Amino acid sequence: MVNAGDMNGSGNLMDFLDEPFPDVGTYEDFHTIDWLREKSRDTDRHRKITSKSKESIWEFIKSLLDAWSGWVVMLLIGLLAGTLAGVIDLAVDWMTDLKEGVCLSAFWYSHEQCCWTSNETTFDDRDKCPQWQKWSELLVSQSEGASAYILNYFLYIMWALCFAFLAVSLVRVFAPYACGSGIPEIKTILSGFIIRGYLGKWTLLIKTVTLVLVVSSGLSLGKEGPLVHVACCCGNFFSSLFSKYSKNEGKRREVLSAAAAAGVSVAFGAPIGGVLFSLEEVSYYFPLKTLWRSFFAALVAAFTLRSINPFGNSRLVLFYVEYHTPWYMAELFPFILLGVFGGLWGTLFIRCNIAWCRRRKTTRLGKYPVLEVIVITAITAIIAYPNPYTRRSTSELISELFNDCGALESSQLCDYINDPNMTRPVDDIPDRPAGPGVYTAMWQLALALVFKIVITIFTFGMKIPSGLFIPSMAVGAMAGRMVGIGVEQLAYHHHDWIVFRNWCRPGADCVTPGLYAMVGAAACLGGVTRMTVSLVVIMFELTGGLEYIVPLMAAAVTSKWVADAFGKEGIYEAHIHLNGYPFLDVKDEFTHRTLATDVMRPRRGEAPLSVLTQDSMTVEDVETLIKETDYNGFPVVVSKDSERLIGFAQRRELILAIKNARQRQDGVVSNSIVYFTEDPPELPPNSPHPLKLRRILNLSPFTVTDHTPMETVVDIFRKLGLRQCLVTRSGRLLGIITKKDVLRHMAQMANQDPESIMFN
């Protein structure tokens, strides 16, 4: 049970104090905030500033500064998030290449940067230059042969293990909250839950450093999800500098919603997609003002990242592509098939990953996080190195799979048999028969696909920063590229079929396999996360493929339908429920015909509700009640006989009020009467001084009758962000329903374990 409603004004908490005492209005760790009270406090603060602004020029200037503080915070978040994302991208690029070799002219250059600066690099051998040497060339002066391969293989594994061990050690010692994706916890925090330290400065620092290490180690994870956590840490840091946000948990969450948008903006180079992601996927309360500020934060973050230009291509992302062929209606069928595959993969991944994470939590496996990371890293490195598509970074793999085959491409995927008589322009190369390189690439991609599907299940959720966007996109991109090549070859060899006859004539450039990879990536990401609108916008911002919105929409909707047929939860909601967080999802529907009286406490056979009376309890009685119970608040009634409801008092504020009264007010002792009334009666001369606590009483707690349908109660909790409501009949208190009770009842109705909801 916890406090609900406003503070009945923002004045003094106790009659004998000139100012509110410290920590009032704050919340305990792992508790839910009261949205109604936070909103009321902000309204009072704003009213006070507005009235004071008319008194003097200085107060008017202060009111202007207060109004602009929100935009200043957004500017700072965008600048810091963009800078950190750029630094992470540059560091990952260098450290990933460090596993294979080093640049002799400047060791801090990545492979690509090293060869850019070389005057001896030719276009055909643009990946080879004398300044860049593999470890075998540097150590034993051999670039080819079995011994060179084994040495490079061994050092690749050693570097991967070194990076992973350093990352898991830093997380374990300095910032345990820096592990995982962070998005499930961000969603829970934005819904009003308090997790102290989750968005702290140490978490920001360690997550930024370890994110570089784990992505560079070659593990099957991405940096995009954790970048949302990093951006929210930036938001939390800057909001703590302004009292408008630091003293109001509701306003702070508006800043964090905008920070999440900035995080996706720099993760994918998708400012609009970032705003939509925050709105659709992570935010619980998203007023119009927050939409504008999210847009501004995402803009500043994207501009900052573009200024750093980490990929050297004047783009915000590594896999910007441009296709030269339109799509045709007949291609919608394979696109929808890719959507079905994405939905099935999403369902498989969520079920297997949650089962593995539950096993980790409930068995001895969870006691050895460092060993688990080392073993998974070793397995990943050993299997990944022989296959060129798993050896490289996942972002580079996706970039190659998205690419259209131009005349200058040297990839195996572009090893087609050319017609010697071809005299077409470079951008419009016709469909050609696949060469031996394409068939080799298909086998390697098939093996890489199976490997990625399996290893990602075990990697996501370990005690290191781990994003899921890029591995999911890689799975879809590999499947999509293989389907695309299959359709392309089918169209080339059977162009007289009725399906191809109208749009794929001999010598035409009909099918773009890279487009299928893009659609497959969207389908798999949608199947895992259940995003739709924001996913499509992120994908076309990511790739510049504005013309291909319809295929992306078809695949995203199909994958969501297929995945939803097996279960409504996305991966983030599944992890929220696994951790027992009190998250009341706005997408959940409650259709059962139960009443408030079926859910409220106390139930039949339980001890009566713990209550305070308005004028008959002593300080000692209140302290005893607090000591003997662990409730977070107590209803206040006229008397235990009548049980007419007066209001609600929060446990934390009762403790603080009594503590401060004993320290600052003479005459308050254990047998002092506690009054919650407006005017306490006159006491005999020798009576101990009374303690008046009217100011901490919430006089308008939310109440429902015992016959209110639970469907309505759930809707009230969801839309008003309540922590609890009191159940009455004709003004007489019957019981209480907390957010935890609602969630447990919903779990019970869905045939799930109600005890899995651990927090209130």
UniProtKB/TrEMBL annotation:
Keywords for this protein: Antiport, ATP-binding, CBS domain, Chloride, Endosome, Ion transport, Membrane, Nucleotide-binding, Repeat, Transmembrane, Transmembrane helix, Transport
Subcellular location: Endosome membrane; Membrane
Membrane topology, record value: Multi-pass membrane protein
GO cellular component, one term: early endosome
Major localization class: membrane
GO molecular function terms noted in the UniProt entry: antiporter activity; ATP binding; voltage-gated chloride channel activity
Protein name: Chloride channel protein
Gene name linked to the record: Clcn4
